Amino acid sequence: MCGIVGYIGKQQAYPILIKGLQRLEYRGYDSAGIALIHDGKLNVYKAKGKVADLVQFASQKDISGNIGIAHTRWATHGEPNLVNAHPHYSQSEELAIIHNGIIENYALLKEGLIKEGYTFHSETDTEVLVQLIEYVKKSNGVDLTSAVQLALNQVIGAYAICVIEKSFPDVIVAARKGSPLVVGIGIDEFFLASDATPIVEYTDQVVYVGDEEIVTLQRGKSIEIKTIANVQKTPEIKKLEMTISQLEKGGYPHFMIKEIFEQPKTLSDSMRGRVSIDEKSIKLSGFIDNKEKFLNAKRIIITACGTSWHAGLIGKYAFEEFARIPVEVEYSSEFRYRNPVINEQDLVIPISQSGETADTLAAVELAKSKGAFIFGICNVVGASIPRMTHSGCYTHAGPEIGVASTKAFTAQVTVLLMLALLIGKEKGTITNAFYEKCVEELANIPNKIKRILEQNETISQFAKTFTYAQNFIYLGRGYNFPVALEGALKLKEISYIHAEGYPAAEMKHGPIALISQEMPVVVIATKAGMYEKVVSNIQEIKARKGKIISIVTEGDVVVKNLSDYSISIPDTEECFVPLLAAIPLQLMAYHIAVVKGCNVDQPRNLAKSVTVE
Ligand code: M6R
Q1: pLDDT digits 0-9 by tens, 322-339
Q2: Predicted confidence (pLDDT) per residue in 374-410, tens digit
């Protein structure tokens, strides 16, 4: 995780870097730091905690300079304190580095450097890297770019790094392997960042740095890229499709609630140019270009983490129901290490909002090496996962800043459903009439979400009742089981209330023992999908005095009467219920967390983009 930013140009670097860090704070917020070169000095300032703490600390310091690098940290090696905060100096304090990733062989490298007389102040792998660069630079008498290149040849691990040198205030050298890095190209200035959000304000011309590439940004010169193996590369400049308003709260108190409310739009964006009401059809170019791979697939393997895994589970229900293809949904972290059976007839679908999740990235590498066809579903354009897949489909949910995933989830589900319906239609495993009905209904979903959002105030009121709770259970069946898992994850990650999702009928195999009048049980009990069976499950909870919060279909009175609190959602096809049922669960988690005074956008210990395994 961690966020990195760099600037070299004619402007003062400090405000650009701080604003950049604020945009990247979702990636980690254990500590923050900045390094600036000015007047022959390389000044490094750090603070434990958030970027705001750094700003306060730096307010008494010399923050001049038109070259600098900055970092916001999610701790991996070494606790989150001032000494371990980045940037790190080299021994002579000639170099400063920021790093996102993990150097796996740091201990061995450190041992070698200690023998050469280097001393270390922090527990970080990053300090080892900057010392190594300095050592290589001095012993070979080379410039910074060559030193970085030679040093990285000795390194095992993942990194995005930026390095500056006191005596050369006209150069930033950066490199990446496994962790993201984007260069923004302005007029006589360059920007560097972990993603494009700190850059969009200044330029829409970007270069996504490739794996194992080293970038030299020199004042008055064009960007230069070469690989760690010393091969020169021609930079591929792309136009950034992002606006600043997408990165601001737009009057909402938190990004999370803004993103929840954006869902009617983000779902329309996911469908734009893909779902046609007039033609009653779905078009996905990634599908059209690789039709045979989809139609001949003997098996689909979905690999993802967290919320994206939950979306994948909904995908499994849809692919099996509509396309009649067996599906396995894998946690990327398990899949990558358990020597799974994969072959050329497998279609592997990694799902990732960020496109940078280390485990999912490794799962893709593994599946690719075994000859499977990889079709990625990703939100962040140009991220590592979509760059590594054979084909794919962007979710187009726009930047998601809140650490708790909301709009990205519903966009992922939308793409999966479109794909499943499309394969089913092409294979003839669903009827034309059903396909057309689904296309029509899919287009109605954004308006139905708007109707659910109108209940925000009601949900915020009853959410207050539940701040006492230590535990929650979420239940659903069929397509609603993954929604129950997702509802529970939302609550636990932002409110720190323990929550478990279960298939409703599994209750009686254990969790029912937990039910008492203290235990809130959220049940998704919509008309579409095993309604009567879920009603029986609700009766079982009621009999044990559990508090029932139900998600019901508009007009339902049976479940409503059995419930302590109830939220209605419009009726829809069973496969689309997750797109609606997820919304009240997101709102409920949000309001409970707000009433509890939690930091909903930046929950403790979490980061948006998990680029370490
Ligand atoms: O970027 P990804 O979709 O690959 O991220 C996967 C998970 O880290 C992510 O969904 C996480 O579980 C979220 N905090 C959930 O809200």
Answers
A1: 999 999 999 999 998 888
A2: 999 999 988 889 999 999 999 999 999 999 999 999 9
CATH H-level superfamily of 249-452: Glucose-6-phosphate isomerase like protein; domain 1 (3.40.50.10490)
pLDDT of 166-207, one tens digit each? Answer: 999 999 999 999 888 999 999 999 999 998 999 999 999 999
- Angle (deg, nearest 10), helices 407-427 and 577-595: 170
In CATH, the number for domain 455-613 is: 3.40.50.10490
- Average pLDDT over every residue of 292-316: 96
* pLDDT on residue 532: 85
Buried b (16+ CB within 10 A) or exposed e, 502-536: bbbbebeeeebeebeeebbbbbbbbebbbbeebbe
Confidence class for position 612, pLDDT limits 50, 70, 90: low
306 lines ligand 1 (CB under 6 A): yes
Distance CA 125, CA 235 (A): 30
State whether the Cα torsion 266-272-277-281 is positive or negative.
negative
Per-residue pLDDT tens for 116-127? 999 999 989 999
CA of 69 to the centre of ligand 1 (A): 27
What are the beta bridge partners of residue 31? 48, 73
- Give Rg (Cα) of the chain: 25
Q: Is any atom of ligand 1 closer than 6 Å to the C-beta of 602?
A: no
In which band, very low, low, confident or very high, does the pLDDT at 602 lie, cut at 50, 70 and 90? confident
Parse the chain into domains and list their residue ranges: 3-245, 249-452, 455-613
CB-CB contact of 394 with 286 (8 Å) = no
Query: What end-to-end distance do the CA atoms of the chain give, in Å?
Result: 10
Q: Convert the pLDDT of each residue in 336-357 to its tens digit.
A: 888 899 999 999 999 999 999 9
Q: Which residues are catalytic?
A: 2, 608
**pLDDT score at 313:** 98
76 lines ligand 1 (CB under 6 A): no
CATH number for 3-245 (one of 3.30.1360.170, 3.60.20.10, 1.10.10.10, 3.40.1190.20): it is: 3.60.20.10
Fold agreement between 249-452 and 455-613: yes
What's the number of CA atoms in the CB half-sphere (13 Å) around residue 456?
11
Among protein residues, the one with the nearest Cα to ligand 1's atom 7 is 306
- Axis crossing angle, helix 263-271 with helix 407-427, rounded to the nearest 10: 30
DSSP per position, 560-612:
HHH-SEEEEE----GGGHHHHHHHHHHHHHHHHHHHTT--SSS-TT--SS---
Name 67's bridge partners: 8
Taking the CA atoms of residue 92, residue 178, residue 313 and residue 580 in that order, the dihedral angle to the nearest 10 degrees is 70
